[in-house]
Amino acid sequence: MTTPARTSEELEEVTILFSGDSGDGMQLTGSQLTTTSANLGNDVSTLPDYPSEIRAPAGSVAGVSAFQLHFSQQEIHTPGDSPDVLVAMNPAGLKTSLPRLLPNGVLIIDRDAFTQRNLAKAGYADNPLDDPELGSRYQLHPVPATTLTLNALEDLDLKRTVKIRCKNFFTLGLVYWLYDRPLEQSQAWIDRKFSRMPLVAEANRRALLAGYHYGETTEAFAVQWTVPGADKEAGTWRIINGNEAAALGFVTAARLADKPLVYSSYPITPATDVLNHLARWKHMDVRTIQTEDEIAAMGSAIGAAYGGAFSVTGTSGPGVCLKSEAIGLAVMLELPLVILNVQRGGPSTGLPTKTEQAELLQARFGRHGESPLPILAAASPGDCFATVIEAFRVAVRHCTPVFVLSEGYLANGSEPWRIPALQDMEPIVVEHPVDPDGFQPYARDAATLARPWVLPGTPGMEHCIGGLEKHPPSGAVSYAPEDHEAMCQLRADKVARVADFIPELKVDGPPDATLLVLTWGGTCGAALTAVRRARKQGHSVAHAQLRYLNPLPRNLEALLARHEKVLIPELNAGQLALLVRGRYLVDAISFPKLRGQPFTVREIETRIKELLS
To answer: How many whole angstroms separate alpha carbon 350 and alpha carbon 572?
Structure first.
């Protein structure tokens, strides 16, 4: 058989969306393509999209699992707006994801899955493959992926159901051929993953090769595309998602302070993987505690901090609600610890596998009484590493609990991350006073207003702590009105003093641009890309990203005053906009989104142009 004549085209970037049943291996397929593309030197950004139901009916729309990957020869900050390629493994995957595909995009479908039963489950009255409009709007390729997979595995002594599960590797092989990706990385992964199941390993290897050879030999694809590697800073790189970056950041922070790490958590989506990752680091003096509930997790975190460990508790929004009373206790005790909130769609159970940024006000005000806390937010999956380390610096320096806000989009999304050298990082200096002369448990550092972090059992420095109000600086229980007011003010002033130690906010773009786009959290990538695109088109616009949300950077008020308009896009109903308006009396323009999905570049770019027209 002769190989069909084809043209080869070089592309700057490609966005591919895999969509199918939760049992079709879409997350694995996307992860393999991500790793292979990163190893080729491409910059990559991903958006896994899981169904919320644990076991939705097979073939149903509710059970669709999707994985979007954007890879490029240039630096990128988002997983792409609309895919150039959609791989739909069944009718439900097609119905759910087709509206996102670009016009004239490549549409690859496993036509074997389009049975009457599957069509009915997806809500199709007729087979969409029979509609000529589908082929006119997209580059349609109905591939008999299941049949070709079974043919390739015909002589293997495996059950038919096991063979069918290999079809995701068939589609992966086809995409590898379409975009000139090598097979070796995935072949090596298969050998490692199924080393104890040689027949399953052989089946997946064959399916991968069958898909690749199908692309190579069929006349259906007239073009093969290639995306060259991007220029990257020298160093050792790896793919990392936000939850793993946070886990590594916690371990690194403890190493920088020569302290044990204690992580207390009750499993909750999408924060559970932080606990799973940290459980593997026992050899680095990491102790993980899976508690019976959120209250116990917060209580054990307080106990670990009191005992002198670097202490973290992790959860998502509903868990923060349950922790809130104990968080108030941590504020009263003034102990250094970190509370990680990986935000998800709410309220209540809400959208447990979808992203949102709706817990800023909860972190800021969601406790009884006057109980301020520093709040930091990560901007990208890799930035979760640096953000949690900075949170520990703040916690130790000011002897206070600190909130870190991540979100489902960052927790599950991946990007290339340059592994830093521990010896190049600034140590975290921890002081435990041991001189009892003149000791007062609630004496204050002149610069930070931190109280001393004294280890229990230090001779001559025994003292009581608890949730009742205190006399400054002795810490003795006091109900005196003047003491309560003084302690409330001291706790607030201590958090406000954090602003003296954090960097000033920087702006990407002209310092006097007409419009400033102000963001926090995972909205950073889409906003930065949109602003730079708009600026190339001649628009007067700049971007600033807030890592520190309480206290806000000390130069923010002056920075806002330099811009005629301020736009604040966020995945909530306008929470940062509310804080900015109330604090600085700036008529900030709120741009809310509450759809369980991150902003696209197009959405923000369109709003920028509307405001500057």
So the answer is: 13
- pLDDT digits over 494-507, tens only? 999 999 999 999 99
CA Rg value for the chain: 27
**What gap in Å lies between CA 65 and CA 47, rounded to an integer?**
11
Q: What are the tens digits of pLDDT across the range 82-136?
A: 999 999 999 999 999 999 999 999 999 999 999 999 999 999 999 999 999 999 9
Does residue 1 register a pLDDT over 80? no
Half-sphere exposure for 459 (CA within 13 Å, toward CB): 0
Q: Which residues pair with 86 in a beta bridge?
A: 17, 107
Of 527, 457, 451, 462, nearest in space to 494 by CA: 451
Asked if 108 and 174 count as a contact pair (C-beta separation under 8 A), the reply is yes
User: Counting runs of H as helices and runs of E as strands, what totals does the chain give?
Assistant: 21, 21
Side-chain-side CA neighbours of residue 233 (13 Å): 10
Q: Are 298 and 327 in contact (CB under 8 A)?
A: yes
Geometric angle at alpha carbon 577, from 576 and 581, rounded to 5°: 120
CA distance linking residue 45 with residue 220, whole number of Å: 29
Cα of 417 vs its chain's centroid, Å: 13
Instruction: For strands 414-418 and 237-241, give the pairing.
Output: antiparallel
In 3-state terms, what secondary structure has residue 506?
coil
Calpha distance 23→118 (Å, rounded): 14
- Enumerate the H helices of 123-241 as residue ranges: 132-137, 145-152, 160-164, 167-178, 184-193, 198-217
Q: Which residues pair with 293 in a beta bridge?
A: none
Q: How far is CA 49 from CA 22, 114, 122, 490, in A?
A: 10, 22, 18, 44
Enter the DSSP assignment of 521.
G
Q: In this model, does residue 54 exceed pLDDT 80?
A: no
pTM: 0.96
